[in-house]
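Box 4.2: Ligand-aware structure prediction
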Amino acid sequence: MRYRSTSREAPLTSLRGAVLRGLAPDGGLYMPAEIARHSPEELEEFRRLPFTEVCFRVAKPFATPDVPEEVLWQVVSEAINFPVNLVSLSPGLHILELFHGPTLAFKDFGARFMARLMGYFVRGETRPLTVLVATSGDTGSAVAHGFLGVPGIRVVILYPSKRISEAQEKQFTTLGENITALEVAGTFDDCQRLVKQAFSDVELNKRAFLTSANSINIGRLLPQMFYHVAAYRQLPVASVPLIVSVPSGNFGNLTAGIFAKRIGLPVAQFVASTNANDVVPEYLRSGEFHPRAATPTYSNAMDVGNPNNFPRLLDLCRNRLEYLQKEIWGHRATDEETLQEMKAIHDRFGYIADPHTAVGILGWEAYKLEHPEPAQGLVLATAHPAKFADVVRKAIGIAPPLPDRLAAYLKRDKLSLPMSSVYDDFRQFLVAH
Ligand SMILES: *Cc1c(COP(=O)(O)O)cnc(C)c1O
């Protein structure tokens, strides 16, 4: 598979080029140059084969010829080593739990897969690859765990001191090995500025081999097709059209859903479920795209005012609003509605949904109200409720059970190094280490 830029000016590149670069040189985002459909017979086989085998078959056309089959097999089997559970709350409402990985959120799929691909692509390099990540909480832990112990790669995570929860902080500052966490005396914007400055520092880039691991990297999107196939395998066989509701922020997850549909999975429509940061639902409604500063909400991993995968959505729909509207229906939920929904779901089904998942369920329910014809809803559950224990307690009056994994991290010592928000200090650190 070759990869092209959404801006269509940069030359085609290989998967290796696209993954190591992240952003195309023309400023666009990398897209697979063509997406091949699997036959209905092969999709039927997908229901019966072991899941690793299915992921391997889904990934193969995207990874050939850069990644030999035995390497791809190893990448897939090591990266996706946790279950995807489908919980049917009712015959028409299914929850796809994507939070059983090491950091209890769906970002584990993308980060673990991409880390291993990068590890393969940099083998034989004499200089270690340094992955720089600025995080406001969740991305840091998924990326850190994804790269933990991957040879030839070190990860430097910048996070704003005292502005993230202890549970978030302990998940990526206690790891050691090839993971360094810098506790920046400043805001998330300061962290992002330091990282951007490092990438545009020509001198520094001659001395160090730097890359980024944010969600514009195509290496994070490809494995997000896997769990759509996992849903297809577990859903009761039915001719009822499937509506997939995706709690969305940067829209990487929804982009991967459309990739999954293009390889042949039967999805009638996607629902872009957002919190108050509803730039995309607003675009679907009005045809006007107005990026703006993010508004803080309870579903904070979706507090994005300028979704960075939007160019990919447009590209997949040939830059036409009416095609986008055919593919995606938009819905926005307020914090108040989110809390009420968490309570309603708990009261009715005894199920504890995290605030992001609740936004997704609200999107499906709103869709159903406007579209009375028969359909079944699949809601992607993007985070474990224990990651948002405070909001859960507020909504349903009790705290969700703390998974052992999270409890173990809370007991460990924080190993982060203090860092000022002055670029020269950060630069000096990168050069010295
Ligand atoms: C990142 C994240 C999202 C948003 O995913 P996008 O791909 O950015 O749209 C939703 N929920 C949780 C819990 C997340 O961590």
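In the box above, the bound molecule is pyridoxal-5'-phosphate. The mean pLDDT is 94.
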